[in-house]
Amino acid sequence: MIKFFRKIRYNLIETGKTTKYFKYAIGEIILVVIGILIALQINNWNENRIQKAKVNNYLKSMVIDLNRDTSAFTKTIKNFNEQVETNSKIFTDKNYKEQSIDSIILIISSYFETYQIVDQTYQKIKNSGLSDEFGSKALNDAINNYYSGVTTMYNTFSSYDRESSTKDDTFWSLTNEYEINPPYGSNKINLPFSENETVRKEAFINKIESNMGRNKLRNNIYRKNIGIDFVQQTQKKANELITLIEEELKD
Fold first, then answer.
1. Within 10 A of 221 (CB to CB), how many other CB atoms are there?
2. Going by fewer Cβ within 10 Å, which terminus of the chain is more open, N or C?
3. Does pTM surpass 0.85?
């Protein structure tokens, strides 16, 4: 009987030790899990910080691109307005006929803008997989709209106007009706003409005053007026996007 009770006591002691060790093991596991979770949290925080820095660098680069765009738009609007004014004088003020033939060329020549909106930063953003990581939905939508919609329309109009303006200049310059200096760069080369300026000027004015000549000028005036409105709207979109980006960078 004494041996029996001693055995029971021994088993209770061993059971207590096992329970103690089991609790200790569970505590160790919990500590390890907590350590892993903390490490993962720190790693995620660090990755988010690195990603945020990349996004901000892209946004800063985009602001530089947009400021370049707006400066070019201002120049284009100014030149288009000046051309509308000078071309319109052919219809409203006949005193242009008193000027030299080279001066008249400058009045009717069709200026066109060669600037194209650059989207290199936007393409880098798309390739990086960060195109949806710019914070607000409004900013994401504005960026995508500007570079996928507005930019395409602007570059398409710019190419159309350049092609049309080049054809207009060809109409005035490459003709068998008279000899004429090209509208640009003629001051660097002085080549003789087969006819005197009076004869050439009369033939030139006759072409300007012809229905085809007036229609060429009229179409250019209308095209440039459309261009002014279009470029102004594009500039407005660019400025709005700059504001949204700068607000995002402040956060």
1. 20
2. N
3. no
